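Q: Give me the 3D complex with nickel (II) ion.
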Amino acid sequence: MRLFDSHCHISDGRYADRIEELAEEIRAAGVERLVDIGTDLESSESCVRMAKRFDFCYAAVGFFPSETTGLTEEDLERLRQLSREPRVVAIGEIGLDYHYDDTDKPSQQHWFRRQIELAIEEDKTIIVHSRDADDDTLRILRESGAFSKERTGRFPPKPDGRPDARVLLHCYSGSAELARTYEKLGASISLAGPVTFKNARRSVEVARTADIRDLLVETDAPYLTPVPFRGQLNKPPYVRYTAEKIAEIRGNSLEYIAEQTYLNACRVFGLEPDGKTAPGGAQEGSASCASGAPELGSPITDER
Ligand code: NI
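A: Here is the predicted complex, encoded as structure tokens.
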């Protein structure tokens, strides 16, 4: 069994003094791939270094919504250069977070747009963070061309022929109805630890009703530790518990959900599922965009 943690922050300082140990745990747990996610320039640079260091690691670079105040076009240009580094598969996490009262909405919206435009220009996957901002997130993604025919035309379609916009809603917390809207537009949905929580209602409904070809799993480590480890520091090996919960909800085996979400993540990030990945190796992410392997992410036949 192999797992793909589509979103975590292993460059976070909390792992710094035990990163080699963590890498061993990740390998031992069958987490064959993960994406280390940036939130500002400094952490994005760390992610790029991490991806060069560990063969299971890929990088995403971006400015988190609350990190956008005071940004300049030069900062965006620096992000563009980073996005061209080896093993950088996505721009993220980017989006809108209206949770706190002092939210700088104009700044968040402006830099969300600019980073979507950058991702489109650079043919990169877009990893979206959206909190208490459902309507504006969808509107800005649409207006900025994230689901345009021009963009989806650049990528191989999903296995059943639907367009793939390579837009990933990370730690999705919206309604099942909104998830369907996103799926129709060509986005994919990533579920995290909250689906295992006792009070999870909406994400359980999403886990039950989403197309299996559109679902990914993630930890968002060091945050959002799943049951049964709540209260402890989260880590990529725990992605198994989110996959297990989805399997339980859908009546599938863990093996099926693990493999399917692995293949979906490979498709969303433009990676060959069985490609050999050497640290600091070829730019697999961008190179395979054009390969169009039709079997990428095909649902495996044994549903159980
Ligand atoms: Ni995150």
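A quick observation: Residues 3-281 form a domain with the TIM Barrel fold (CATH 3.20.20.140).
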